[in-house]
Amino acid sequence: MVEIGSIQLPEFPILLAPMEDVSDPPFREVCKKNGADLMYTEFISSEGLIRDAFKSTQKLDIFEYERPIGIQIFGGNEDSMIKTAQIVERANPDILDINFGCPVKKVVCKMAGAGILQDIPRMVKLTKAIVDSTDLPVTVKTRLGWDNNSKYIVEVAERLQDVGIKAISIHGRTRKQMYKGEADWTLIGKIKENPRMHIPVFGNGDINSPEKALEYKNRYGVDGIMIGRAAIGYPWIFREIKHFLKTGKHLSLPTLKERVDTCRFHFERSLVWKGERLGILEMRRHYASYFKGYHNFKPYRTKLVMTLEVNEIRDTLCEIEEKLEDAFLQLA
């Protein structure tokens, strides 16, 4: 069993990564149904939350069926982050997570996200201030370092543990890498080898199959893994990894009906959550993955991503279920 403060997770939990414009409640719901053990919200701007901006405050909404659930925040100003932590606490999540990993320029330039990796003492000081300001267990998601010359994550993880965080998730790339190249888990493994580390360490980056999950579990000794992009349009990856780790065997691939049903459920939830226009637009990133491998899916995908009509999307999903066949599935 893995513990984050008083929160108990199963042995070797599989986590859903916080992803902007992806990890919203509709997406989290389909991931939870398919076995995600711990999920995080999209990251929330501290400045936006303090200003009561709708896009930020909406992200505070969590539901009982999602638990355990963490709310992730980002920002570079200590006072603002402390106020944000207190606002988050009132939303009653199970965990408060600090984003020290986002590589996007508009975040980094404010010394937030991965930007703070340029100033480790400031990173530690900010973390301590947040830990001291809340009764929630605080976790951190970060990267190996700013660039190849500043991969201080082994030391950083220990220092963050010493100021009170209860778990750390590490993406195996530097900020300079963004999402390019192969994730390097070597230093993540070295954190686990550090005899002074006692909090859970979760690895993140490039886990896209049950085989790789097992390989990295055994090679690097992490307490669990965090899945990000591989779950977009394919929430079944959580149950597939769990089954493979337990039995050494693969689950059957989701059937065409299951793919359509899950996609439809996700779409309808998105309409309710985000409103018609935004719900339609933000679902577009998911369709190709929901039906990946179907060589005759392309004309249907074109329909799904080109229309702004709800009923046309519903009709297209029905048509997919009627006219595509599982026999056409080409394994990647």
Please characterize this protein's 3D structure.
This protein is globular. It is α/β, with parallel strands linked by helices and 332 residues long. The model has no long low-confidence stretch (mean pLDDT 93). It is 45% helix and 14% strand. Strands 3-4-6-7-8-9-10-11 form an 8-stranded parallel barrel, surrounded by 6 helices. Strands 1-2 form a two-stranded antiparallel sheet. The chain folds into 2 domains: 2-247, TIM Barrel; 256-328, Non-ribosomal Peptide Synthetase Peptidyl Carrier Protein, Chain A (Orthogonal Bundle), CATH 1.10.1200.
Provide tags for this entry.
single chain, 332 residues, alpha/beta, eight-stranded parallel β-barrel, Non-ribosomal Peptide Synthetase Peptidyl Carrier Protein, Chain A, two-stranded antiparallel ribbon, 45% helix, TIM Barrel
Q: Using only CA atoms, what is the Rg?
A: 20 Å
**Which outline best applies?**
globular
Tell me the CATH architecture of the largest domain.
Alpha-Beta Barrel
Helical proportion? 40-55%
Instruction: Describe the strand arrangement of the main beta sheet, using strand numbers.
Output: 3-4-6-7-8-9-10-11
The structural class is: alpha/beta
Largest sheet descriptor = 8 strands, parallel, barrel
- CATH topology of the largest domain, by name, is TIM Barrel
Report strand %.
5-15%
